[in-house]
Amino acid sequence: MTEDSGNSAGRAIPSGRLARLGVFGKLAGGVAGGVVAEGARRLANGERPKIGDLLLTPANATRVADQLSHLRGAAMKLGQMISMDAGDMLPPELATILARLRNNANHMPPQQLDRVLAAEWGKDWRRKFAHFQAHPVAAASIGQVHRARLPDGTELAIKVQYPGVKESIDADVDNVATLLRVSGMLPKSLDIAPLLDEAKKQLHEEADYLREAQMLARYGELLADQPQFVVPTLYSELTMPRVLAMSFVTGVPVETLETAPQDVRDRVMHDLISLVLRELFDWRLMQTDPNFANYRWQPETQKLVLLDFGAARPLPVETGEGYRRLLTAALAGDRDAVREAAIAAGFLGEAAVLQHRALVDRMIDVILVELANPGPFDFGDRAFVGVLREQGTEIARDRDTWHLPPIDTLFVQRKISGTALLAARLKAQVDVRALIQHSFGEATL
Length: 445
Hints:
Largest sheet: 6 strands, antiparallel
Structural class: alpha+beta
Strand content: 5-15%
Oligomer: single chain
Mean pLDDT: 79
Low-confidence stretches: 1-9, 13-44, 48-56, 69-73, 82-91
């Protein structure tokens, strides 16, 4: 969830198909107008601009971000996902669009909220509570969270889904894909249809709060023996397809740990990386959304709060086995075995390896050197990332060799990359090699 600023105004979320299509039409018209104006300006200055340069101007970046954040739902969710996953590989202006989506705090006005809750709980829904805070404490792409208190004094967090989100998922995904195509970010030769289908499926699952309730309860059971983590308690009697009720758990943004002592930062990331390994190799169930807002820190208890299980998904055995083979080869320092395991798991396409073998091997060598260093891995030392980005960017320029890894691998890699980003943000030092070895020794596959 994205933390609400507390002073933003409510803005009705377009719920009907025509209303949402109208927003995309307004967006397209506004972008086109911006292209014409910017093109005229550059031509007057004697320039011959490319259409991609005209599309991705700062003004158009603001226009796109504002309209997608107004739509919420799949449009905003996909923007957030791409922003986290692609990072520095995006054109700067497109990165600006998506970064704005991660921080926007529009929410439903009270009248729209009342209609949603009346549809789920009945017109007398307020009688269920001693107090219901109308202004949300958090707002995200699919829903917003309100604090409430039951007559017995129990504090709850109530997640309410934006109207029309579920019905608009398929069209929104297709429209965002068109936006990415027009931006020039995706090569025409790349078949993204399977990815779009899976994105729609994933978003439909995230919009099913009864399913998320099951995942919330399941994680509560799985982590019952892990006192370092806190998972909210499900209140099933108040949970509906578009309303999720759970205990209200206090906490501060996980980023506040940046100023915590080194040993605290190290311990938190040690626990989170261990959790990812258990999800992958032991449980075969993973919460695949690593958004920082899904973690909260409790300074008084020194515990980490885990939130938002809508993106939790079971993993096939072959996904875990692919990572096991890859990591086993990496721990052994065997470059050829790493390359072969990466191709077998779908991380690397055979065309990319054939065309850019030297660059691929250079990237593998950088990773092997880092992993071979004894003791804790310093996530705060990002010097090697620049080397990897340089090699990866050169490979990526050859769009004929682009390919999509298996869908489940993409989701797992998203979680791994997001966890590494948080570790880098906290400048944590963790003996990753030892954690992997320990996981291989205890995982039940």
